[in-house]
Structures are given as structure tokens and as C-alpha cells.
């Protein structure tokens, strides 16, 4: 996909938001990490050079206030909670290439450097801010974003009236360029509803925004005025750029910048679809290719509710069922890009009916039949043309969907073929064919079609469920993990012995 200009090697750079360290990791955080990991793993399967970034957002009021409430220094709180977020990715089986902390001195240096350039380019001026502010969002609210009783529409807390001498970022100077960007690149923001939301915010008229805070000390110091720190959102957004300069042994910026995908939640849309491109323009840096905005995972109808009830605890799910099942469930049950409710009940239903009964049984039956009827060696014969319509072109279709971050649609396309293969088993009834020696060729074709089909599905599912599909592919004797092996005409799983398979998704898990 992108970054193909100038004959560069194909690269793919995907990011998650960086998480505030004022609270512990929860399912909403896990969600974006899982989605980004699916994209990263898929692009690695395509042979691309991939960089996957996540990390923590450690400055600003939310963190300073939480530390204050605990009677500790912000840095202490940041150190403590950053470790918990860092530990989250491996528990999810996520393969991030780096974990950025905005208190990294290298990041801070880049923030100072880029924002000084923005100032030199004429987009910073001194002024006085007066208006409503939510300390939990660290966000200055426009009049039309305020709930009744001067409350934050997200946190429902009372907003504070702020009056502060600040340096401002001249966002208004980018009105026309942002409108032109949205006109030229309709896939800059997706899904479409989010593109429309961002564009209508821009069209409603951009106002300049504070770039620095005078009252706060917990932040990156402004190099031209030490009494100020940068407003946390500008510091945070720049993580996507700064990380590349020090994540590897050499500077990776030239290889991976700009990002192909920033994955974000819908509550931080304005920062990523308006402020961020404007800031990059002001700093004369290239803009990302896509911002994909996902919805909220809802529990009890709320964004994230601690109230008792049917709450899905990601760590409890992982402890009991492993990360694959959680990854599958979140991308299967809630269409990626929309809001959706999650619960332990619907998790268990999907686990039983789809993972255990549909995929798990298909795999174990297929492997058992190859052992029973063919001594463990599927014949190298032509595949059943009946399935061509379902399997030819599937890998390319999945690639196209993942290119558009349509992770649920891609998973659904794959799952339809899991079901197709199950029907094929029933329709072709290999156990009947096995009773009749005259039908040995037919039996060979059915078993080999099942093995090949299962191989294709396992490779396509690999980014979603890395560990279960590894087991399955090994059982099929398939060393291949690249997407080249998912083509319907690649029969690399045939004519060689297969292994055995333990239950992929035990029902008593
Ligand atoms: N620190 C900022 C992001 C800076 S990015 C340069 C921030 N952090 S956060 O920890 O509050 O939220 C991080 C992400 O988690 C947001 O994208 C938010 O949408 C997401 N989620 C938090 N709860 C969520 C759900 N219940 N469901 C899905 N995602 C939600 O904002």
C-alpha cells in the first residue's frame, strides 16, 4: 500500500492513541491495540516493513490532578502506570515495535524543536484565553460543546472557567488548506460519518487554540518562555512523529513517515482530524494517509462503566480463554468503526458457537479424517472447482478491506468461508465416500480441498488469532505465514504429511 513513492520498499506505519497514565488500562485501550496489531501483522504477512507504535501520554492536567489526589509526584504516577500499559500489549499478543512515553527526553526535544519551527513560521502569537475547560479531557470547549449546567458532555463534570495568558496556535490560518485537504482526499478520515463530522467542524469556522499553558508546570517547557509548558495535546500528537527518530538504532523517520494509519476513538476526533493536520502543515511536515475513527465499546449502555453487572474484564477473558478469543470477539461482535455493546454473555456465545463449533470442529474433523482415511497425507490433487467461487480472490478481497481498515468486514468475509467449508463437509460426506473404493479419487479431492481451504483460512485469520492459527498451520504442515500462501491456487499444504492438533478452542476453557 502507501509509501510506495520514490521506489521505496513497501512500508506500513500504524499507531494507536497514547494512553493517559492517570488510570489503569481497560478494555477500550486494549481495543485499539488489538486492531492496530491485526493491521500490523497483516502487512507483515504481505512482506512489508512495518512499524507499529503505541505508548503513554504522561503530561497535562489529567495526570497532574490524579497524582495530586494520591499525594505523589506526577512522574511517580507516570512511572507506575506506564509500566501497566507497557505490559498490556504483550498480554494481548500485540507486536508493537516501540512503546513511547511522552516523558522520554528524546520526545520532549522533538516537541520543542517542531513547535519552535511552528512559531518561526509565524503561526504562534501571545494572547489571553477565556472560556470553558474540562480538566479531564484537557480540552477547551467551544460554546456548542457544552452540556446543560456548564458540564462536559463526555465526563459530565462541571467545566471550569479559565482565563489565562497563553501562546496561541493560529489554527484559523489553516481553514482553506484543511478544506482543500478534505476535498482532495476523501479517504483522509474514515468511516464516512467521521469524515463528515470533521469537515463540518472545519466548515463551522476554525478558531485559534491555546498552544501553551501558563498555570501548569507538568509538561514540556516552552523553550522561548520558561513560564509556560506546551498544551498537552500538541505534545501528545507529536509522539507519532518523534518516536521514529529514536525508536530504532537509526532514525526511522525517512523510512516510515508519514503514518499510513492513525487509529483513534471517536472522542479524540477533532484533535486528530483538524489540529493534527494543521500542526503538521504549520511545521511543514507530511500529513498522514488515513485517520480511522473507531466507536466505543459499550457496557451497560455506557462508554465504560464500573457499575456492577455484565462487565467484560479483558484480563479475566485472557486468563481463561487466551488473547486470541478476545481479539476475535472484539473485532467480530462490534463492527469496527461503530459503537457496540460487549458482554460476557455475548463473548461466551461467540466462543462456543463460532470458535469452538465452527472453526475448532472444522479443523479437528478435517485433520482426523486425513489421518483416518489417508494415513495423514492429503493427496496432491486438483481442488474441487465447486469452491472456486468462494475461495478464488478471497485473499485479495481481504487485503482490500484491511487496506481500508474494515477489520470486521474482512473477518466476516473469512468467516463466511469457514461456514462454507463446514457445509462442504456435510454435503460431500467423506465418511460415505470412504466406504466405496471406487470413489477414492473423489475422497482425495474432498480431503485435499478441505486441507487447502483450511490453510487459506488459517493464513487469513493469522493476524486476528496468531496463536491458534499458528497451531493449526503447524498441524497442517504449513511453514508458510506469508499471504502468498493464501492464494487458492497455492497447494503447498498438499502431498505431505500433516500433524495432529489439540483442541483449538476447548469448550471447558
Ligand atoms: N491521551 C489521549 C490521547 C492522545 S493521542 C495523541 C487520550 N487518552 S485516553 O487514555 O483517555 O484514551 C485513549 C483512547 O481510548 C481514546 O481513543 C478513546 O477513544 C479510547 N477509549 C477509551 N474508552 C473507550 C471505550 N469504552 N471504547 C473504545 N475506546 C475507548 O484520550
Would you write up a description of this structure?
The chain has 509 residues and is α/β, with parallel strands linked by helices. The protein has 19 helices and 14 strands. Helix content is 47%, strand content 14%. It has a six-stranded parallel β-sheet, with helices on both faces. Helix 5 runs antiparallel to helix 6 (192-203), helix 12 (323-333) crosses helix 13 and helix 15 (394-403) runs antiparallel to helix 16 (407-428). The chain is elongated, with a radius of gyration of 26 Å. It starts with 10 loop residues before the first strand and ends in a 34-residue tail after the last helix. 5'-O-[(L-methionyl)-sulphamoyl]adenosine (MSP) is lined by residues 17-20, 28-29, 31, 57, 236-237, 239, 264-265, 267-268, 296-297, 303-304.
* Average predicted confidence as pLDDT: 93
For this entry, what is the oligomeric state of its chains? single chain
Count of alpha/pi helices: 19
Strand content: 5-15%
Taking the sheet with the most strands, its summary is: 6 strands, parallel
Low-confidence stretches: 1-7, 305-309
Structural class: alpha/beta
Widest beta sheet: strand line-up: 3-2-1-11-12-7
